[in-house]
Structures are given as structure tokens and as C-alpha cells.
């Protein structure tokens, strides 16, 4: 038998260890960027401040996860909320899930506002005002509460009908299926709530991109342009969706900044992610990991004989698993950086390598990315290789 208090102690120690583990690289990145401020141009100063504050907020995001665990679990608020509501049967359980979702989302709104105020607004990246931020917050709150209510109905019903040993794994499987549905819903239902998407206009650029797709042997449902310039000056592109819904989304800011040849190279990079199966591989392994963590938590609680309602435990798993999973971060970041190199290679073979290099250079400058990163910080957090290494890899293979 494991002592529940001992388990709590180990979990607390683990969370604090995570804060230290992520804190050290963030401090190193801060100092790495501060190294040369003597002969700094105003542009370089802005990039440094942007990079430093982003490093700080990387760590704050981890702290947020830990504080939410402390708030809901450490202070016993989650169990208290459940005890007060669960007497109402199914309606009570649903009320519990909804109240938790509202409360938790309100806590999670602090960081985006702080990020907007101290990073995006302060560094001149954001074009949103307080009204736009508030409207985004309200939409996130409504959306996440709806998702939580649906997830509650979908994944918690086994606890009402089956013994814990059967209900727990079944609820885990149902949650993974729910996540797959969310993966489908994101480009189709959720993203359009926040941004306007329109097909890329006919013309030289569209013809050029279509010719490139044909060379790659890929047919997309459409190439979409998103009105990101309403919110920010940052430029980007991404690939999303699976099967017939797959699409490349170009920021309108990207189209404004890059030449047609550069856009073609960026588009080839995004297609590379699709052709190499990066999305499927990443989200597939993410789902397996989550399921593994969920099953392990259920087994641990059963062995320890912790007296907790399975509904509370399922919500606790949602809070705990991301916060406890910090040792996986370097591995996940390294995978994503490898994907970026693979997509770059793909783009360099199917479009002009020189255009990809110049597109990257422009994007790094426009998005205030410092060309170099602290080694430890890159190892833990960087989902894209540091700019200098990425450009060097492209030039070396030329
Ligand atoms: Zn990429």
C-alpha cells in the first residue's frame, strides 16, 4: 500500500523540480540575449527585450500550470466544489464540470493578458487593443466551457455504470477519441471563431503555388489566407487538418512581406510537414502518452487506496498530467526541431533554396527572433531551430 500523503509529497517535489528545471534555461536565455548591449541599435534592443520577456513567460507558463494544481488540488477546492454539487446526480456532476471549466479558464486568462501587455504591446508586435483582447477572452471562456461540458458528458458516463477498474480505462479511451474530434474541429469550427479565413485570390501567386503543389503531387482543399494583421504584425504560415480537410494557411502579413518566390518556398515547407507525416506522428504519440499517463494515474490511485471520486480524479488528471510531464519537454522540442529541418529539406528540393533562405531571414527579422539562442534554452523549449543554425543547414546543403 502506498501512503496518499507520501504520493502528494512526491508530486509536490516533482512540480518544484520542474520549475527549477525550466527556470535555469530561461535565466540563461535572458543572459544570453543581454550579452551585448553596448553597441545595440534600437531594432536590436527591441528584439532583445522581446526575446527576454518571451523567455520569462516560458517559465511563467510552467508556473501557471503548477499554481493551478495548487489552487484546485492543493487547497482542496476541486474536491470541495464536487462535494457541494455532486448530490444533484448527473446534473450536479455536469454543473461541477462547467463551474470548474469557467473558474479554470478565468485563471488561464491572466497569462494572455500579461503577455499582451508586457510583450506584444510593449514591443510593438500587437495590433489588438483592450476591446479586442476582452472579446477574445470572452470567446475562449464560452468555447472552453462548451468543450468541457461536452467532454464531461462524453467521457465521464462510464463512472456511473461501471466499476472503477473498467470505467477508468474506458474514460481514457473516450477522452482520446474526443481529442481526435477536437483536432478535426479546430480548423473547421474553432479557428473561424477567432479569425477570418478566405481563399487565396486568383492571380499570379495562386497559379504559382498551384503549380508547385502539382510538382509535389499534393492536392489541397484550398490555400487560405487568415486576417492575422488585425491582431498582430507577426508573419507566419501553418499546415492544418487531415484527409480531405488538409490546408495550408498563410498569414496576410506573410503575403505582404514576402515575394512570390519566397511564398512558394514557405508553402513548400508547410507541404513538407504534411508529406513527412509530422502532424500525424506528433499528435499520435501525444495521444498515446496522455493515455499512458492517465492509466498510470488511475492505477497509482487504486494501489494507494486514495478515497477520491473518479470524476474529481479525471479532472485532476487534466490538471496534473501536463504539469507532471515536464521531463518530456526536451524530447518533444527536439522532435519538432527535427521536423523543421525535414520540412526545410523538402522545401529546398521542391522550391528555390535561395528563396527559402531569404524568406527565413525576412521572417526572423519581422518576427523579432534573435538569430541565436542559449544552448540549454534551445534544447528544452525551441520548437524551431535557432535561426543561425537553420540558415546554416540550408546553405551547407546547397
Ligand atoms: Zn515548419
From TrEMBL:
Claim: DNA-binding is one of the keywords in the record: no
Matching InterPro entries: Peptidase_M48
Pfam family, any one: Peptidase_M48
Protein origin, superkingdom: Bacteria
Keyword flag Protease: yes
Cofactor(s) the protein needs: Zn(2+)
Transmembrane segments: 6-24, 56-79, 85-107, 141-160, 166-185, 287-305, 311-328
Domain Peptidase M48, chain residue ranges per copy: 201-395
UniProt cofactor note: Binds 1 zinc ion per subunit.
Keywords: Hydrolase, Membrane, Metal-binding, Metalloprotease, Protease, Transmembrane, Transmembrane helix, Zinc
Gene3D superfamilies referenced in this protein's UniProt entry, alphabetically: Metalloproteases ('zincins'), catalytic domain
Family to which this protein belongs: Belongs to the peptidase M48 family.
Protein name: M48 family peptidase
Organism whose genome encodes this protein: Salinisphaera dokdonensis CL-ES53
Amino acid at each position: 500500500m502506498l501512503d496518499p500523503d507520501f504520493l502528494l509529497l512526491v508530486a509536490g517535489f516533482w512540480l518544484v523540480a520542474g520549475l527549477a528545471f525550466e527556470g535555469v534555461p530561461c535565466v540563461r536565455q535572458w543572459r544570453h540575449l543581454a550579452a551585448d548591449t553596448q553597441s545595440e541599435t534600437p531594432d536590436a534592443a527591441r528584439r532583445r527585450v522581446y526575446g527576454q520577456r518571451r523567455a520569462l513567460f516560458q517559465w511563467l507558463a510552467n508556473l501557471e500550470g503548477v499554481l493551478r494544481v495548487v489552487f484546485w488540488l492543493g487547497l482542496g477546492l476541486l474536491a470541495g466544489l464536487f462535494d457541494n454539487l455532486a448530490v444533484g446526480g448527473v446534473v450536479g456532476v455536469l454543473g461541477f464540470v462547467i463551474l470548474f471549466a469557467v473558474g479554470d479558464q478565468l485563471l488561464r486568462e491572466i497569462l494572455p493578458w500579461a503577455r499582451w501587455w508586457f510583450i506584444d504591446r510593449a514591443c510593438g508586435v500587437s495590433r489588438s487593443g483592450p476591446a479586442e483582447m476582452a472579446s477574445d477572452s470572452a470567446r475562449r471562456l464560452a468555447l472552453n466551457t462548451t468543450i468541457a461540458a461536452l467532454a464531461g458528458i462524453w467521457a465521464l458516463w462510464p463512472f456511473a455504470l461501471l466499476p472503477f477498474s473498467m470505467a477508468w480505462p474506458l474514460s481514457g479511451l473516450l477522452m482520446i477519441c474526443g481529442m481526435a474530434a477536437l483536432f478535426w474541429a479546430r480548423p473547421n469550427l474553432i479557428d473561424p471563431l477567432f479569425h477570418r479565413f478566405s481563399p487565396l485570390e486568383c492571380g499570379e501567386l495562386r497559379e504559382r503555388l498551384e503549380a508547385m503543389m502539382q510538382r509535389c503531387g499534393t492536392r489541397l482543399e484550398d490555400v487560405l489566407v487568415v486576417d492575422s494583421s488585425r491582431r498582430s504584425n507577426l508573419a507566419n504560415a501553418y499546415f492544418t487538418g487531415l484527409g480531405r480537410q488538409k490546408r495550408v494557411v498563410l498569414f496576410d502579413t506573410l503575403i505582404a512581406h514576402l515575394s512570390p518566390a519566397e511564398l512558394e518556398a514557405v508553402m513548400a515547407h508547410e507541404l513538407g510537414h504534411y508529406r513527412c507525416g509530422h502532424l500525424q506522428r506528433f499528435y499520435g504519440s501525444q495521444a498515446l502518452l496522455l493515455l499512458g499517463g492517465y492509466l498510470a494515474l488511475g492505477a497509482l490511485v487504486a494501489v494507494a487506496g486514495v478515497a477520491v471520486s473518479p470524476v474529481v480524479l479525471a479532472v485532476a488528471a487534466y490538471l496534473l498530467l501536463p504539469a507532471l510531464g515536464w521531463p518530456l519537454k526536451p524530447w518533444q522540442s527536439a522532435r519538432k526541431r527535427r521536423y523543421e529541418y525535414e520540412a526545410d529539406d523538402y522545401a529546398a528540393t521542391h522550391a528555390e533554396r535561395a528563396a527559402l533562405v531569404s524568406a527565413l531571414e525576412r521572417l526572423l527579422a519581422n518576427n523579432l527572433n534573435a538569430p541565436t539562442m542559449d544552448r540549454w534554452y534551445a534544447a528544452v523549449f525551441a520548437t524551431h531551430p535557432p535561426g543561425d543554425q537553420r540558415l546554416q543547414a540550408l546553405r551547407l546543403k546547397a
